[in-house]
Design brief:
Length: about 600
Amino acid sequence: MRLNGLSTRDPAPSYSQLLKDLRAGKVKDLELSLQQREVRVRFDDGRQATVPVFSNDQLLLRTAEQAKVPLTVRDDRADGATAGLVANGLLVLLLLGGLALLIRRSAQVANRAMGFGSSKPRLQEEGGVAVRFEDVAGIGEAKEELQEVVTFLKEPERFTAVGAKIPKGVLLVGPPGTGKTLLARAIAGEAGVPFFSMAASEFVEMFVGVGASRVRDLFRKAKAKAPCIIFIDEVDAVGRQRGAGIGGGNDEREQTLNQLLTEMDGFADNSGVILLAATNRPDVLDSALMRPGRFDRRITIDLPDRRGREAILAVHARSRPLAGAVSLSAWASRTPGFSGADLANLLNEAAILTARHHQSEIDDGALAGALERITMGLTAAPLQDSAKKRLIGYHEVGHALLTTLVPKADPLDKVTLLPRSGGVGGFARMMPDEEILDSGLISKAYLQARLVVALGGRAAELVVFGPAEVTQGASGDLDMVTRICREMVTRYGFSSLGPVALEGDGAEVFLGRDWLRSEPPYSRETGNRIDALVRELASSALDQAVALLQPRRALMDELVEMLIRDETIEGEAFRAVVTSHEAAHQQPTGSAVALQATGKADVEAAQVGV
Ligand code: ADP
């Protein structure tokens, strides 16, 4: 085929055909490639072809010579060799590169292993700590104690002149979020000294000896900047009792602790370095840490009481625009058990909700939304009016109704059928009694009232749907009831077992100390009595709940209808409905019913509402 007058390659002739063509004088010239063992043929008629040949092909050479066809020899072996050389060179380079990379990586690992010891505590330079005592609220006594530390850091001469030694270590004990870190920072801020902080868990690495060298390093850096504060968070991570633990202790942890003790002994009295450590498990700390000259001051920071909560809310409200109608004292009452961190979070969530609704001030609605979000989770889509919704309605109305019927029970805050993510279909929330919360004293009658209210859900299901239709929805309530009953019998002496405390405070077992001591400290017979009494307390509370709800079936129906219609009933409105209904129907009082219903039950259990 010809294209634009140029010749193209035609199918190659066979070797013998090539010889024939050569002899017949049809070939114009030949070009022999040594490397590829082929010959390129150009025919007189313009065709071209490539024919494979033998290496060192004498016959072809002779034939071409006889036919007088010009033959050129192309020696392309050199090109091939260069290409091979380049390829080989690249391979070697690649290997060398890989090797270098490997060596560098392992050198880095080795370097890191060697440099593990030098800790990098987050250092804040003098005056860098902006926190002041006024930013920490609700823990007055702790602040007073620590004021002394500030004075020492600022004017050490006042103490040294009269020969006083200031404590080297202060242990801050309290649940998470109560402001221990904040307080430590406030001391540094007030005294205007550098603040070194580190979590004890950061000391312990997988290499033995690293923790100890980190402790040394931290103290070395701190001493260079004295006076200063060293703050060690979660000190129980290294300060646990030595020699404890199954199969011996953790060597690395023990070495770290030993180093910490040595360093504390090592710095001279009044050297200006004050060590503050925080923990929420003082029970597991090694007693050597508490000796004089080490952490000889212990300051307990508990969850704030109502006034404390109000003060903390006020601190965090300083930087946020609150609507004039918001009463922080009311919000402090509604947040029992909240830590400082929870309260800070509450205001923050409220601020987020406010921003989301394009409002300029945080109002009660935003705070209510935030509280619900924190305590109950996010709202889920409302349930359709179905049998399930009705069942949950009766369950919650059972709880809510009993809060109004049982004297001494915590009053109802609200009952709602708005579901929450996490499978909560609705809830009835009580407002815990402030006096009880603040005093920390809980009476037997109060606990019994809580049992009856907690079983109100199950009781309502029993009354309305019958014993065969009760649901597992009450399992959370039952957990709580069992725990309260057990504590009443084994810890508070609230049962016929007598005034004995048979169990500890239920704190988690500390492996290595309590683990092997799993035998309960009472006889099997007592154990059986405890179980029987727990059951009896719970059953009689259920009997009382049923006895109070049974004659009020019509009222329950009315309240459930209202709840399904409105989805939420506030405590006030709920109580108003109950009061008017009670006045119209003259029901027997709670205590009278309780006594009728539980003739067989333990005397003290029947005293609910008396
Ligand atoms: P802890 O160290 O006890 O776990 P933090 O000091 O880290 O608790 O507290 C976390 C946050 O909670 C603080 O930054 C602060 O915003 C808030 N907070 C906690 N307690 C208080 C308090 N008493 N006063 C003001 N804010 C507090």
